[in-house]
Design brief:
This protein is 54% helix and 5% strand. It has 6 helices and 2 strands, in the order H-H-H-H-E-E-H-H. Strands 1-2 form a two-stranded antiparallel ribbon. It is globular and about 45 Å long. The N and C termini lie far apart (37 Å).
Length: 168
Amino acid sequence: MDDLLREAFRHNAWANKRLIAFCRDLAPEQLAATATGTYGSILEILNHVIAADAGYLPRLKVKRPDWAGNDQDIKGLDELDARVDETTPPWETYLADPLGAEQLLSLDEGAYEARASVPIVQALHHANSHREQVCSILTGLGIQPPDLQAWAWAEATGRARELGPPAA
């Protein structure tokens, strides 16, 4: 089962990197664009997603990057891309030997308690939700966003392929 979960996080990193790469072709005013109902500008959203991905890493098992969870210091696309690369190995390490799903964790300096499964589920949900916000802003700008679905990831990484029409 842990292999399946690792694959979900590999998709997460791929989707972050693909969206960052796509945004490299945007003008500064496009990166600063926002829309009603989104977290902020494209760059602010990407910064938030990457900082949160590192922030959801379980401290009991791995060392988080020093910048984990800090989305106040807005970084450029090069730094965000490097941060995805920095966050991927700790996720891989953690998912190779995760905490038990039902283990209770003390979060937010003891102000919140949750089962170990909750931050993991939240990490994937959070990233997908905010990447969709970026895609909505792009669509509002008249730009076709990249395909970030699991199917696109699977084809891009050799995990799936089109076989053509079924034989008659």
